[in-house]
Amino acid sequence: MMLVVRVKSCEVGVWRDVLCRRRAEAVAAAGATPVAPVDAGSDIAAEGPHDEMFVIARVLDVLRRAVPEGQPRELLGPTWLLDPVIRDAASEAAERLSEAVDVFRADGVGTSADHLRAAVDTASACAATLIGLDYVQNHGVE
Questions:
Q1: Cβ(18)–Cβ(89) under 8 Å?
Q2: Count of other CB atoms within 10 angstroms of residue 88
Q3: Which residues make Cβ contacts (< 8 Å) with residue 57, sequence separation at least 6?
Q4: Are the C-beta atoms of 75 and 57 separated by less than 8 Å?
Q5: Is 41 part of a structural domain of the chain?
């Protein structure tokens, strides 16, 4: 199943970091997969990491494109990739928010109020995307 995700500009950095980690994992998996001849009609499970790298590269390309101010980027990709990326991005954004709060509480100097607000916006947007994914999965919306 394909999924369309609208990513706000504040989410792009988190998404990029999550996708780059997944790409590194896929590259490692592709390097660990022994190369074997493949018959035209056989199951090509060995292509999995290569397919994932291709799809990740496509999504990263969309994230790099400029969009008009205030408009989200629309990502189209398979659910098998975007589902874990959405979940990881929400967790990553929450962790970044927690760190920003800790630094701000500690001295108020290491993190500006604007930086803290940006972390709140990013965590909120990523959580909203996760809630949207949950809705789609639980209500069969396509």
A1: yes
A2: 19
A3: 23
A4: no
A5: no
CB 93 within 8 A of CB 8: no
Closest CA to 56 of 67, 68, 64: 64
pTM for this predicted structure:
0.84
Backbone angles phi, psi at 77, to 5 degrees: -165, 170
User: Which pair of tokens denotes residue 109?
Assistant: 């100097």
Model confidence over 22-77: pLDDT tens digits? 999 988 887 776 655 555 544 444 456 678 889 999 999 999 999 998 899 999 99
| Strand partners of residue 77 | 3
- Domains in the chain: how many in total? 1
For 36, the token pair is 């074997």
How many angstroms separate the CA atoms of 129 and 87, rounded?
9
CA angle 82, 2, 72 (to 5 degrees): 60
List, in order, residues 6 or more apart from 129 with CB less than 8 Å away: 5, 7, 11, 86, 89, 90
* Range(s) of the domain holding residue 119: 2-34+46-65+73-139
